[in-house]
């Protein structure tokens, strides 16, 4: 079932939605790996805030695809050049892609 919300498709799902499970795992992994990355990272706070926003959206039950993608862009901009985080970031990207593209 889909729900439209101000030009962004909101995904209505159950607790067992495999997309939600995959994204929760990916976000959790990146969050852990970012916490363990001790080198200076200028935009660490942005990445942490957006990961928290993704987690909150998943808990709320209806993440908006456009908002997920926006968070992903901010996270990628903040940590994308850190090779130690590349695999975890790619996992988040793949999990967001499972939700499809936002509607215009």
Automatic annotation (TrEMBL):
InterPro entries: DUF5955 (IPR045999). It comes from the Bacteria. This is Uncharacterized protein. It comes from Streptomyces pini. The lineage of its organism: Bacteria, Bacillati, Actinomycetota, Actinomycetes, Kitasatosporales.
């Amino acid at each position: 079932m889909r729900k439209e919300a101000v030009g962004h498709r909101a995904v209505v799902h159950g607790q067992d939605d495999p997309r939600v499970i995959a994204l929760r795992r990916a976000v959790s992994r990146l969050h852990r790996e970012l916490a363990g990355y001790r080198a200076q990272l200028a935009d660490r706070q942005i990445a942490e805030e957006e990961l928290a926003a993704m987690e909150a959206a998943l808990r709320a039950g209806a993440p908006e695809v456009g908002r997920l993608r926006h968070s992903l862009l901010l996270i990628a901009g903040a940590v994308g050049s850190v090779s130690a985080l590349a695999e975890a970031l790619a996992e988040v990207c793949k999990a967001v892609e499972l939700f499809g593209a936002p509607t215009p």
